[in-house]
Amino acid sequence: MSATRDKEAARLRALDGYRMLDTPRESDFDEIAEAAAELCDVPIGVVNLIGDGRQFFKAEVGLGVRETPLEHAFCRHALLQEDVLYVPDASRDPRFAGNPLITGAPGLRFYAGALLKTAEGHSIGTVCVLDTTPRELTDRQRKGLLRLARQAMAQMELRRSLRDQAEQRLLHERILDSAIDYAIVATDPEGRVTRWNTGAENVLGWSETEMLGRPAATFFTPEDRAVRRPETEMALALENGSAPDERWHLRKDGSRFWASGEIMPLRSDDGRVVGFLKILRDRTDEREAGAALEASEMRYRSLVEVSPQVVWFGDAQGNITYCNAYWYDYTGLPAGEVGEVSWMSVIHPDHRDATRRAWLAAAASGRPYEVEFPLLGRDGQYRWFLSRARPAREADGTMRSWIGTSLDIHERKVAEARFQTLTELAPTVIWFGDPDGGLSYLNDRWYAYTGQTPERALPMGWGEAVHPDDLPGMLLSWEDARARGGLYDTEARLRRADGAYRWFLIRAEPMRDGSGAVVGWLGSNSDIHDRRQAEDELRKAREQLRLAVEATGTGVFDYDLVANVLNWDTRTRSFFGLGPDATVDLDVYLARLHPDDRDRADEAVRAALDPAGDGTYDITYRTVAPEDGVERWVYAKGQTLFEDGLPLRLIGTARDVTESRRAERTLRETEERYRLAARATNDAIWDWDLGTDHILWNEAVQTLFGYAPEAVGPSGAWWKGHIHPEDVERVKEGIYTVIEGAGSGWTEEYRFRRADGTYADIFDRGYVLRDGAGRAVRMIGAMLDISERKRAEEHQRLLTGELQHRVKNTLALVQAIASQTFRDATDMEASRDAFSARLISLGRAHDILTASSWTQAPIVDVVDGALAVHRGGAAHRIRTGGPNVHLAAKPALSLALALHELATNAAKYGALSNDLGGVDLRWHIAHEEETPRFCLTWSEHGGPPILAQPTRRGFGSRLIERSFAAEAGGAVRLTYLPTGLVCRLEVALASMQEQHDVAA
User: Which of 82, 403, 443, 505 has the most CB atoms around its CB within 10 Å?
Assistant: First the structure.
């Protein structure tokens, strides 16, 4: 039974050496599991590591879990095989009778597993396959499983080797950098320096930069260089594996020092020499002090030569100066050889560094020295020795030397090692319990963790380290397990030496004698604090995430690219107009995207899945639900997870940003309206920060007053400095009265200087903004240039005189129209109607000119006013078009009367006299000659055909000709075509736009 436990302990140690338990999945092992399942054509394939009471699945296919108890596992039986365990039908195999994995779910029947064996023959797991139906294992499949098992072991060995190499490299680097008292120099095979540690710089004086590439012979004395001593040392090192060196060397400043050291070759894995490593230590002081001490030490040597243990002396600096005969008899070293290289060479390599550090620390501090190490005897075997030393001091306390002994403790160490191996290899606290509940043993991990001593912890003092809230329940569980004689399993918090508590899993199994009576308990405490904390933090994080998602209205999406499965939560579904139970896939997603956004969204997904990118998915798109046509804006952001350059998963969040999009659009429109309004207005709009005296102007301040942008000052001082000197004090008094008072509105008229030095008349008004305390902080207003209004007021007086003149002219024109209308009239009623219509047309023309202060009238308004009566409900029959030319007053009146006459004649005799005819009225500006000309064409069509030219010219025709020939100096041509009348008017554009003397 003991042999079985030893074998199992060795197997578990071998497994622990790979550090593979509880590690994440790796594709190399996943592929082995997949290959095993494919090889045997089964649904389940596993790479399994068998630990203490459990089996951990480094890789699995078709199983869905990473760990199960070992109690009912097939692989527990596989450990008893040499290479492969094959179970064609477990229901017929008595080894698995009553196994719940066979009798219940999942109903396993077939099993085949090839052992994972270490180089030492320890079985640590399997590569296995399983099925729920019986199967036969072919010889090819059996060999394939063995090959896959060897591949799995090769992967594990590779990882362990790489880890060990990395740890060794790190250790070596730290050792080199920490040895500041030792000159450690590496060279290439020719002796040129390739590495120069800090100690070398301290001891020799040269920096690494100065020495790299230079020969190591640089720090040898000229006489040693002359006899090629550096080359001799390298040759001896190649021949013997190392070459000790104690001689004089040179520093950078030319001084000499006595150094002891050693040179050894550096070899690659294939044995090729890649350089040398030389280690030196300055021993000048020790050499000089050694000579003084040598005489006194001789008096004591005779006393220690007969001692049955090693007796040795050292100087104050820690250099060994003497060893008695026992040392040389045991080690076989040459008598009298006491250098560090010599005595270090017989200490076991694994203990050299620790022993040397302990000795150097004791020598430096003057504290007693005690260390244990294996020592190589002349027979080639190592034995354990306990080495102790105490400093010898002068009367004043100054350390003079060291006296030490080394005692053979090999038998004791062997006995301790057997016991220690059983307890200290485990990464947990190991303890032995007595049947009465007390503890008889706790391994060092307990004392290191709790800070207790054995005297304090045993037999019941260990309870002091248990959290007070956990101790009562723990003791009840312990009493219950002892009463039942069964497994003890609980969790509790244990106090660390610094007072912090950590969670531990505490388990113990009863140990029984031949009669079955419990004679003790073997227990372990495993630190599970990080796991518990991670579980708690994960629960908290999930709850926080859930609350955050709920609070922010955020949805979650998860796209499994391997399985091509798209998952949305309920809120994300709602963004696409879907119910909580609706089916979701990529087609649904694409179908509900706005057509204008599909290509952009598809490109965003492709970019996120591109291994060359950063995997970020960030886009805003619209969704449209076919059921109700509701359009929503959705902002989605996610991250792609890659493995070996392949995208595996795209996960992220989505938010409905419809309202914010609308708000942004409204804000943009508002800002644009304000910007356009500010640009379109003639007002100079200003925004005055009263705290900083900074004024922000719109562009109108430049256009109104002629200032370049850089000339407009951003301060109130600039504004006040441009107010007319006669107005400035009045304006300042008025505006500051409002600012410093409680009012909000301010208006003022004053003169403001333009860029050209002239002054504009300004009407300025502003509104004061105040903070919560009523203090004025800001003022916004607008400056209106009223110079034209001021001139208009002056001009109004002139218009009074002009009005008299216009009335006289109008009466004269009415008299002329009346005279022409009634001169040859035969039908007075018809003449009165014609006269009234002409007066109405004249009135409309006057209205248009009056609206523009008798300066200019747009031709469109003149045309509309003249034809309004004739259009009536058939406006489409008179089509007009042309540039909106502004006409002077007299040409406008003439054109209005002419158009009225043409429309009246068309209604009586022409195109408007029936229901089918129409008129096209077009005008344009001709630039064919140097002087632009105004051209207008009246074309009738669809009316009664004109079969003969008219024999008499009426007043309307004469009025048209008179208006443009006499008033505007233009040409009028009337053409009577069979299809209808065509009237063409042509006049210089300047004649139509010149404003004649209004006072004439």
Answer: 443
Q: DSSP string of 429-496?
A: EEEEE-TTS-EEEE-HHHHHHH---HHHHTTTGGGGGB-TTTHHHHHHHHHHHHHHTS-EEEEEEEE-
The helix/strand/coil state of 694 is strand
Q: What is the dihedral of CA 850, 855, 860, 865, to 10 degrees?
A: 30
pLDDT tens column, 952-986: 776 667 767 766 666 667 888 889 899 999 999 99
Omega of the bond prior to 459 within 30 degrees of 0, cis?
Answer: yes
- Measured between alpha carbons, how far is 733 from 728 in angstroms, rounded to an integer? 9
Structure tokens at 997: 């003397």
What type of residue sits at position 56? F
First-to-last alpha carbon distance for the chain, in angstroms, is 139
* b/e 816-837 (16+ beta carbons within 10 angstroms → b): ebeebbeeeeeeeeebeebbeb
Provide the 3-class DSSP secondary structure of residue 184. strand
CA geometry: angle at 967 spanning 962 and 969, to 5°?
A: 90
Q: Which of 976, 979, 984, 899 is nearest to 934 (CA)?
A: 984
- Retrieve residue 638's tokens: 């996610």
Residue 938: which of 909, 886, 900 has the closest Cα?
900
Residue 438 sits at φ, ψ, to 5 deg, of: -80, 160
* Percent with pLDDT over 90 in the chain: 33
What does 600-638 look like in DSSP terms, one character per residue?
HHHHHHHHHH-TTS--EEEEEEEEE-TTT--EEEEEEEE
Contact 410, 416 (CB under 8 A): no
- Dist CA 614 CA 617 (whole Å): 9
Tell me if 36 sits within 8 A of 150, measured CB to CB.
no
The model's pLDDT over 431-462, given as tens digits with 9 standing for 90+, comes to 889 988 889 888 888 999 999 999 998 989 99
